[in-house]
Amino acid sequence: MASTTFSGPIRTGKEENNTLAYCNMSHRSTVSVAFNTTTGTALGIKIPANSTIIGAQLFVDVLFANSSTTSITLGTTTAANELTAAAAVSATTTAVVLYPKITAGANSWATVGTADVDVYVKVVTNSASAGSGHIVIEYAQNSNPYTANNGVN
């Protein structure tokens, strides 16, 4: 299958009355998230400046064996906790919604700011003895919802 590369954001809809919309983008981690990824590890995902993260999921490739309390967090530094609260991964889990988890106030959606950011993951293993998966993050480019006209020029 052929592919095309270009830079965005991609705008859709009518330009009258600033009713343009943005196409959502998704990015899959190039690094596998293993049960023993216990330090903040870069996922190989870079979110472009002024984007709004609208979702993040863990898709399990190998079940997290013996897990009852394993948890995963995402962040923008090696602390890997700025974007999500800890999400539990049990021994039978095949997918986990990591984001959105709205925690505080009206402005709690993750807008990455004026610079591109790398995304990091950290796992608190606890009882898991095996397991791995990959992360998919969805975002809208150049769509900071807290700026005038929502990024539309």
Short description:
The chain is an all-beta fold and 153 residues long. The chain is 0% helix and 39% strand.
Features:
about 150 residues; disordered C terminus; 4-stranded antiparallel beta sheet; mainly beta
3D structure, described in words:
The chain is mainly β and 153 residues long. The protein has strands spanning 11-12, 21-22, 24-28, 33-34, 41-47, 52-62, 70-75, 87-89, 95-99, 117-124, 132-140. Strands 3, 4, 6, 9 and 11 form a 5-stranded antiparallel β-sheet that branches. It has a 4-stranded antiparallel β-sheet with strand order 5-10-7-8, with no helix packed on it. A two-stranded antiparallel ribbon has the order 1-2. Strand 1 and strand 2 (21-22) form a beta hairpin. The chain is elongated, with a radius of gyration of 17 Å.
